[in-house]
Amino acid sequence: MDFTATRLWNESMELALGDPEGGKARTRLREAFLSFRENVRLLTAEIHRDLPDFTVHDITHLDALWEMAALVAGPEIRLTPPEAFILGGAILLHDAGMAMAAYPGGRAELQRTQRWQDTVAMLLRTRLERLPLTEEILRAPEDITTEVLREMLRASHAEHASRLPLIEWTSPSGTRYHLIEDVGLRKTFGELIGRIAQSHHWPVSRLGSEFSEVVGAPSWCPGSWLVDPLKIACLLRIADASHLDERRAPGFLRTLRRPRVHSDAHWAFQERLLKPRREAERLVYSSSRFPLEEAPAWWLCFDALRMVDRELHAVDSLLADLGRPRLAVHGVAGVEDPLRLVRLIPTEGWLPVDTRVKVSDIPSLLKRLGGEQLYGENPGVPLRELIQNAADAVCARRVLEGRSTNWGDVIIREGQDEQGPWLEVEDTGLGMSQEVLTGPLLDFGTSYWTSPLAREECPGLMAKGFRPTGKYGIGFFSVFMWGDRVRVVTRRAEDAQKDTRVLEFHAGLGSRPLLRPAREEERLREGGTRVRVWFDAPFKVPKWLCSVLNEEKLQKLSFSDALAVLYPCPDVNVYTEDSAGRHERVLAASDWIDMEGTALLDRLRLQPVLTNLPWTENEHEDVRQARGRNLRLLHGPAGEVLGRATITFMWKYGPGYSPGVIVNGGFRIDKLESIAGVLVGSPQSAARESALPRVEPKELARWATEQGKLWQRESLPTESLNEVAQVVRNCGGEVMGLPIAFTDTGWLTPEDIARREWGPEVVLVQPSDVGLEISDGEFARQYLLVMDRQYSQLHANILVVEQLGRSLLHPNWLGTLPPWPGTNEDKLHGIIPKGTLARAAVEALARAWGVETEHVVVAHKADADSDLIIGQSEAHRGTLKAFGWLIVRKPS
Known about the structure:
By secondary structure, the protein is of the alpha+beta class. The chain is 37% helix and 17% strand. The strands form nine sheets. An eight-stranded mixed sheet has the order 12-11-10-13-9-8-14-15, covered by helices on one side. The radius of gyration is 36 Å and the shape is elongated. The model is unreliable at 541-554, 608-618 and 652-656 (pLDDT under 50).
């Protein structure tokens, strides 16, 4: 139908007999609109170039909205000529922002926005699994920028529609163009048309407050030509939502464009839909039959019609509540049940029975998945999650406002009132808007930081390198492990104190939370958030700390000590405050980066908190001091600190319990082996009970090489330096100057092996595969005998060298080691892993022989019928034998 044939157009824009006062004004509005429409026709014709997967959004869709508006309005709703001009203008512009041509500056204009930078940063972070560098964001690959462009046009089109009536385009010759060519109408109605066009993406509830007042007529129009923006916004919203039929998805056009899978279902269902009709205050849709292969499209149609139904109900409720004339349509027929809708939207060869997984007791499920079923019986998890959420908010505000890296506080309070004992965590972070309080915070599994709302509220945050610890959107729900009564007090940093809001849970997840303005005594002086939880059971620090550290011999800890154990690498300043109001800083922001080395190791090993533990007595003081001074920083590509660590060893000195930990957001998550200090990691599950270090291989190798040089300066036994070499090699570092293999002449470095004359065949023996056979037939394995020339005399062609990669991570609950750092995945001839000293020895042999390493011949020999005699032990009057070995040959 031609839009000029619709009732709404004819009654408002066509000349009426006996209307001398309004004839001239009506003509001006009509002609200005037709010119306006022609300009937008050219603009919207460009949408398919930038969004080829989208259904039709050109002028045919826009013209059809006049018909849809007339259908849902019914005969009782009428428009004055200015209202028709504004409605028509909003219809023209509501989707026009989806064309890149709608931006006079083109792609460059979009690329200058913070939203573009944030979206690129998020996509690159997903691909690279790390923070992208600034130059990587600026020079992102074409496939990334194409995806960002589509996302930007889609996500920003409504907001950009508000600007389109006033935007100017300039041709190369200097000619200036506007979509609304009539200057007077552009000035009078342009801003309102833009706001109404944008409003189709607002929540319905916002329409009433934004468009509450009726606007008077322009001076050149009859005084009775009033403008009701709310009526126009509701008509636009419903007309756009309900326009679902074959005009938007012609079959031949679908064939030509070949939309991607996720979009093709939209084309498929709309291609089958016929024009809706109005019956008994409902829209009735009908269609041709959906075959079995188009079942997903049928269900998408079902969901789309339910969306239209919700929109109609919401708009009808709004108009009724405000006492405004209601539309003639209040819902969509058949959407209450798939089996009712199938009578109107038929299928062929299948029946649409809704077999989706249903959750009847959502509060119970949330409490389980967000509590002990996820985290186990660890009552310390809520405190960890509360502090982490607070730290994320502080760090985000720090980044946005350009504050120093040690700015921002988290305060933890304990107290008791008539409701019982409670614990409270307060921060000086961003604070939460009402949209966050009622949206992502309560949406289980939705992280605010990765949501479009975060990009809208915090433009530039992701592009500036902010990396939130929280990413699963479930941490807040862990607080209900402590108790059912929870209070959240918050205000955005830029809001006034009076804008502080309170969200209260009185009976856990089984009741609806209450949102209210804060009372005067509850208002926050600074922006931020305060979460208080009342305990259902007494809170005992040692109990949950034992579960965190998995140690049984812990003495009773103070609350401050417990925090240091739980949060050894804080991102923020942490204070405690007792019931008497005593305020104490227990942790300083980022202090672990530059604090004295032994102090950091003491914190990690729980000293001086723990006493009388066996391992704390075994460490030699000189080795303890050496470990402290050899701690070195590890960095990410963007310069962020990803660790501070040193290599550790056990030979002769014992373990000394110099622990290594993996932290996430500053919290202790997992353990390290052979490395003392801290590595920042990424959790491997939502429960965050295990993690893998984030440091990249190149940086890890650099650090390991430096560690090898540092430890060579210390007065260590050769055997300890060999342990260092094992870790250095497994981290991808260079082992120059470090002893890597034991021979007939003692310990050799790679340089020693490369300089020595070797025969064409050398035998590599794993130390643990060596045994001593005494002359009377008694047989025993003796590891240390092999590594000391006082007791062992090896044959000249024998290299005793570690063939297994040094363990760096703590075994998981299955007893297996996670695949990190991955240096052992590359195996020479499928036998010798790259991250082993055996591989370093083969590389040195290749240099001695003057050949490439890959040309060296390696043969595995193990579990042979007879053991290999590799030397003698005169001190024990026995023979040294190998149970398994590798033969390395010089290529012929």
